[in-house]
From TrEMBL:
Xref: PANTHER family: PCD6 INTERACTING PROTEIN-RELATED, PROGRAMMED CELL DEATH 6-INTERACTING PROTEIN
The protein's name: Rim20p
InterPro entries attached to this UniProt entry: ALIX_V_dom, BRO1_dom, BRO1_sf
Family matches, as Gene3D superfamilies: alix/aip1 like domains
Source organism per UniProt: Saccharomyces paradoxus (Yeast)
Domain of life of the native organism: Eukaryota
All copies of domain BRO1, residue ranges: 3-369
GO CC terms in record: endosome
PROSITE patterns xrefs: BRO1 (PS51180)
CDD domains in the cross-refs: BRO1_ScRim20-like, V_Alix_like
Similarity-based family: Belongs to the palA/RIM20 family.
Pfam families assigned: ALIX_LYPXL_bnd, BRO1
Length: 659
């Protein structure tokens, strides 16, 4: 048995794996590459062995060892970080292709494992029975590898290691040659001709598929395609020759003649080196069959023969049995940054879970409880007032006084200008006489300004009164009370103290649960899972992790019921108190020091709010008043300047006329 084909290994360029992996570790994990030098060197050695393997079982093992390492690299590192370049060896011209893809590198190695099986199948074939079995198995293994590469690159959508049509052609070729081994063993064992015909017909079918796909593919050379055609024709001749022998056994001599004629037709189409010897056998058998049928049997030779049903004896081997799994784990302690990012995200989800399921519900329950009892809660909006804030209010009061004095000073200046203008007008009128001094009297034309002046002085008086009142209010505030930390005195009411104790207990439980959450993190579980499985699907682990807080959820549910009972007790007590007389109720309220404290606190803050409101209004008031005073001052100055000019001109004219 000869004239079988083996698939040449793809060739590649060397990759500086040590440098590339070191950079990858330094950029994608929390560790440094120095911690993994031994693992890196194993990867480098494995690839160097796999790219130039011997055609031997040892070479096959080197390819599989590198494949197993690639499985680990896929789990530990991003797929698209290292560049690999491989060259096709099927076509007459070598074609190179580069990809940044561990998946592509892995599929290429699987392809080369298939090539290695085909090469080993040829090396194992010496026509002995055991070697035929081994070759048959190796060809099926090769077919399994090529079929797996095709399935994976279609499923993943990656750049093809080899185009789909070529892979289909190679798969069919390997199966054809595996079936050929089986057929040859059947010939050696001298099985029935009808069975051998069925075996060879399956070979024909495999070669038909290989030829069809090879012609559509991009890599298989024409001389290979011609070889496939020759093999198909040869085994077509074998099929009809064996059918003829089977017809002879059945004394169907006319059919035997037709079968030998078909065998002769196909053997003439074959260009194999073994064709000549087989052709001689067919020619001799055909002549003898025709002579016997023409002179002895006289059976009709049919125009066609029924199709021969093929006998399929081979199939692609399952890659699960061919390809190794991870044995010795590399980069065992490598933790990618992505895994740590997952931990951070899960920690945030855990904190949110605690806030939503424990913290916020307990805070809400406390709020409901506080709102139901006026004797235990500090009124909203009441916060400690700092000494600096009180000093600021005092300074603001002082500023109001300063603004008041400044406005009064400006008004005095305005009044002085008006008085001086009226005085000079009166003196000049006495000097020249009323008949000659024709300017309007000041008392007539400056009345408007005096009225404005009087109005502004009225505003000033109002401001002084309000400022004085604000100052007195500010002085009456209990500054020690509002300036000290707000602490309610101990209540004398048992229910109040019970509620206070429960609220404190819940607040402490909130703090305890938050500490528990901060200490009980998912990081160790995620790292353990990642080291074990190499996957980043941690959702199920997170769900199980949260079960640690089930007891806290039960506590929240139980305290909800407790809250409702306490509120009912408070409501009953309030109803009981409201039934008493107003005087008696007032006395009861006064008994509780907490109420006294809150009442005094509210009163002081109410006074402070009044002071702040007056200060705000006063600031706006004086800003407007200063603007109005300034405008009035400018008007009076313009009026005075105009009157001075008129007086000077009239005085000079009258003085000149009197000379």
């Amino acid at each position: 048995m000869s004239e079988l084909l083996a698939i040449p290994l793809k060739r590649t360029l060397e990759v500086d794996f040590a440098t590339e992996l070191s950079k990858l570790i330094d950029t994608t994990s929390f560790q440094t590459a120095s911690f993994f030098q031994s693992d890196i060197l194993q990867v480098v050695a494995a690839r160097n062995n796999a790219i130039t393997p011997d055609i031997s079982i040892g070479g096959l093992c080197e390819l599989k060892e590198y494949y197993a390492i690639l499985l680990q690299l896929e789990k530990k590192f991003p797929n698209n970080q290292i560049e690999f370049r491989w060259f096709q060896t099927l076509s007459q011209k070598s074609r190179g292709c580069s990809q940044y893809s561990l998946q592509w590198e892995k599929l290429t190695i699987i392809y080369n494992i298939g090539c290695m099986y085909s090469l080993l199948a040829l090396n194992s074939n010496n026509d002995a029975a055991e070697s035929l079995k081994t070759s048959c198995l190796y060809f099926q293994n090769a077919a399994g590898c090529f079929e797996y590469v095709l399935e994976q690159q279609v499923a993943l959508g990656t750049t093809p290691v080899v185009d789909d049509a070529t892979l289909n052609a190679l798969t069919s070729l390997m199966l054809a040659q595996a079936q050929e081994c089986f057929w040859f063993k059947a010939v050696q064992d001298k099985l029935k001709d009808s069975l051998i015909a069925k075996l060879s017909q399956q070979i024909v079918d495999f070669y038909s598929g290989a030829i069809s796909n090879a012609q559509r593919g991009k890599l298989i050379r024409n001389d290979w395609i011609n070889h496939l055609k020759a093999k198909k024709a040869y085994f077509s001749a074998v099929t009809y020759y064996r059918i003829a022998l089977s017809f002879n056994e059945k004394k169907q001599f006319g059919n035997a003649v037709k079968a030998l004629q078909m065998a002769m037709q196909f053997v003439n189409e074959s260009k194999l080196s073994s064709q000549a010897k087989f052709k001689t056998v067919i020619e001799s058998s055909l002549k003898e069959a025709q002579r016997d049928n023409d002179f002895i049997y006289l059976q009709q030779v049919p125009s066609e023969l029924p199709a021969t049903k093929p006998a399929l004896m081979v199939k692609p081997s399952c890659t699960a049995t061919l390809l190794p799994s991870i044995e010795k784990e590399l980069f065992k302690d490598l933790i990618p940054i992505e895994v740590m990012d997952y931990c951070t995200a899960y920690n945030e989800r855990q904190d949110e879970y605690i806030e939503q399921r424990v913290t916020k519900p307990l805070i809400s329950l406390n709020k409901l409880l506080k709102e139901s009892m006026s004797t235990i809660q500090i009124p909203q909006g009441l916060t400690t007032v700092s000494e600096a804030e009180l000093s600021h209010y005092q300074a603001s009061l002082n500023n109001l006084c300063i603004n008041n004095k400044n406005v009064k000073t400006e008004l005095d200046k305005i009044e002085q200008i008006l008085n001086e203008e009226a005085f000079t007008d009166n003196q000049l009128r006495l000097k020249h006489g009323t008949l000659h001094w024709t300017l309007p009297e000041s008392s007539t034309i400056n009345t408007t300004y005096y009225e404005k002046l009087k109005k502004v002085r009225g505003y000033i008086d109002q401001g002084i009164a309000i400022d004085k009142q604000t100052y007195e209010i500010f002085q009456s505030i209990d500054k020690n009370l509002i300036g000290s930390e707000i602490r309610l005195p101990e209540s004398s009411d048992p229910l109040t103290n019970k509620v206070k104790m429960i609220i404190q207990e819940r607040n402490e439980y909130i703090d305890k649960t938050r500490r528990k959450s901060s200490e009980y993190r998912i990081l160790p579980k995620i790292i353990t899972s990642y080291k074990k499985n190499g996957t980043i699907d941690f959702e199920a682990i997170f769900v199980d992790h949260l079960k640690k807080f089930d007891e806290d959820l039960r506590y929240v549910n139980s305290t909800k019921q407790e809250n409702n009972k306490l509120i009912e007790e408070v409501n009953l007590k309030e109803k009981h108190n409201s039934a008493r007389s107003g005087i008696e109720q007032k006395k009861m309220v006064r008994i509780d020091p907490r109420e006294l404290y809150i009442e005094d606190l509210r009163y002081s803050f109410k006074l402070l709010d009044e002071v702040k409101e007056n200060l705000s209004a006063g600031t706006t008031f004086y800003e407007n008043l200063i603007t109005s005073t300034s405008n009035l001052y400018n008007e009076v100055q313009e009026y005075d300047a105009a009157r001075r000019m008129e007086k000077t001109k009239l005085d000079e004219r009258l003085t000149f006329e009197g000379q």
